[in-house]
Amino acid sequence: MKENRILEVNHLDLSFRLGSEVNHVIRDVSFHLNQGETLAIVGESGSGKSVTTKAILGMIDENGFLGKGEILFRSSQKGKDDEIVDLTKKDKKYMQKNVRGSRIAIIFQDPMTSLDPTMTIGKQIMESMLEHKKVASKKEAMAKTIQLLDLVGIEQPEKRVKQYPHQLSGGMRQRVVIAIALACEPDVLIADEPTTALDVTIQSQILELIKDLQKKTGVSIIFITHDLGVVANVADRVAVMYAGKIVEEGLAAEIYYDPRHPYTWGLLSSIPSLDGQDEEIYSIPGTPPNLINPPKGDAFAYRSEYALEIDFEEQPPMFQISDTHFAASWLLHPSAPKVDMPVVLAKRIAAFNERRSQE
Amino acid sequence: MSANVLLEVKHLSQFFRIDRHTTIRAVDDVSFHINEGETFSVVGESGSGKSTLGRTLIRIYDAHSGSVNFMGKEIGGKLNSDSRKFLRKNMQMIFQDPMASLNPRKKVLDAVAFGLDINHLSGDKDERLRKVVKVLKSVGLSEDHLTRYPHQFSGGQRQRIGVARALIMEPRFIICDEIISALDVSIQAQVINLMRRLQKEHGLTYMFIAHDLSMVRYLSDRVAVMHLGHIVEMGTVEDIYEHPLHPYTKSLLSAIPHPDPDAEKDRKRFVYLKGGVDYNIGTIRQLSDTHSILATDEEFSRWQQNDYSLFLK
Q: Would residue A163 count as lying in a domain?
């Protein structure tokens, strides 16, 4: 594992048993997370983006099983050399004691269901600190809790610690959830659609908060979302997932201004453009495939007007476009025919590029 | 009322009494009109009263006060059975969560024909079937789907069933309450394209209730911005998106994330300072024929001079 990486997922395979059938939800997924960066994983529901992060945390349900693949995590301890552990080899007990909550923390979409309605928020924040023995006493835990609430922008934290979740607004609750995630000073924060349930104005505040916290604490973030506007706001790098595979990966600018995979084209084009009210929005036809019998070749071929014959036969490999930019599409093969992205998207990108060249 | 106005709402209020001491003013003295064939959108955050407004118009709730004139008939007050029938036939609503609005034990055929059945419009068995098949085809579903149950469909297909159910009454006016917010991005585009196609084919008038401001910009003719039960600003899409005057509209627009990383890096966002404006003492002022705003004299002159120091951060 390279020096600057904190997490590396290599060729991960994950399936769920459903009666006599097997649902192959993650198929040969590889990506990495650099220290202090934000990686966004984008995809539709069912693409496997949330399950990937659950695999990292060892939170796979009973009927799930890992195939091949490894999840390497750089575990740093004060005064010792960094140790690299393969999280797929570790049992539940190890994960709970040494990783989940303390080294890798997660924020879920709905703040109401991730908070306990019968516990004060102060108690909920203190819980993981005490469990992981990050503090010596309850008194110290309380002091730290108040600091944390202040850090996530909650006013009068001394009063708020005694309140229950139902006494707070949606945005406030999500701030509390973030405070809980940060309680043990994790190295990696996984944010699974943290703003989807919130209003736009609250969303922008929470995004600002997460970016601000990253600056202050240096935490590395995996940000899962389907909202491409949000991704543009937070991400350093972007991985696009479709049907259990990463189909394109690159720096945010590469994905938005030079996308290469037809699925990425489809996603970017289906956002309505700001002018051109009379045109239809580009929409990807059909629905994502069933992964009980995943398609043989490129899973997106069945919905893509750009599909080549080989797409139905063989899985495309990851083609390299730059040092940081990769895409799995046969269209990038040297002998593939040359195709153009949808006109709407080409127009929009041309406008972006013009603006960028002026600056 | 001019000839092409389909719906005119005057001083509509909807209060909910919680207990002796508290009454929630969900919709508070709201006036607007919707022209025939246009798409009118109501935007605002959760709790702004936009859904309550839609539900009051279609008489899921009885209005506290005010008048609603729909196609020349007064439908704000008590309804007799004729005007109720008239309303149910001509005004329909599509809801946010298609799974929650479909009965899981009813087949698509019966779910879609339900409106016809309870209004005694379905005719004989063949005619009923014919009508359902026709409307299913127009929303992009097929005859094969007739005998299936809601759980056998994807989210996008379920929402199409919701659209079919509204459409089968051949209404003039459809209220769409957050119809795409539960759907994936690629499916959202499919449903929006469907709604626009149907609007052209049937000359429908829509009221969209939404919080996705970029979609609203794409599909609306006119927009009303609601906050705390009041319409604070209203105008054409251009008025609202290019020349917003109310600080709340400005803060809402500044919060939309754009799919453009470079622009996102140096975007300035405004936070609306709650309590800066008391909507109850403001009055509606016209900026142009189409553009209006709720403000007091002082606020109005400050905003026109681009002085937002008291209202935005």
A: yes
Whether residue A254 is contained in a domain is answered as no
The phi, psi pair for A125, rounded to 5°, reads -75, -40
What's the structural domain count of chain A? 2
A272 in the same domain as A223: no
- In this predicted complex, what is the ipTM? 0.83
The CATH number of the domain holding residue A50 is 3.40.50.300
Q: What are phi and psi of B50, to 5 degrees?
A: -70, -40
Is residue A31 pLDDT above 60, yes or no? yes
Q: Are strands A5-18 and A64-66 parallel, antiparallel or unpaired?
A: antiparallel
Alpha carbon distance B132, B228 (integer Å): 40
Residues A214 and A332 in one domain: no
CATH of segment(s) B5-242:
3.40.50.300
SS3 A121: helix
Which residues from B are below 8 Å from A when comparing CB atoms? 45-46, 154-156, 184-190, 192-193, 196, 211, 213-215, 217-219, 237, 251-252, 254-264, 269, 271-272
Q: Are residues A326 and A292 in the same domain?
A: yes
**Candidates B45, B155, B186; nearest CB to A270:** B186
Domain containing residue A310: 259-358
Mean pLDDT of chain A: 90
Query: For residue range A123-142, what is the model confidence (pLDDT) as tens digits?
Result: 999 998 998 888 889 999 99
Question: Has residue A289 been placed in a domain?
Answer: yes
Q: How confident is the model at residue A17 (pLDDT cuts 50, 70, 90)?
A: very high
Strand, coil or helix: B89: helix
Per-residue tokens: B234: 């209203």
Q: What is the pLDDT of residues A326-358, one digit of tens each?
A: 999 999 999 999 999 988 899 889 988 888 888
How many angstroms away from the CA of A262 is the closest CA of chain B?
13
Residue A356 confidence (pLDDT): 80
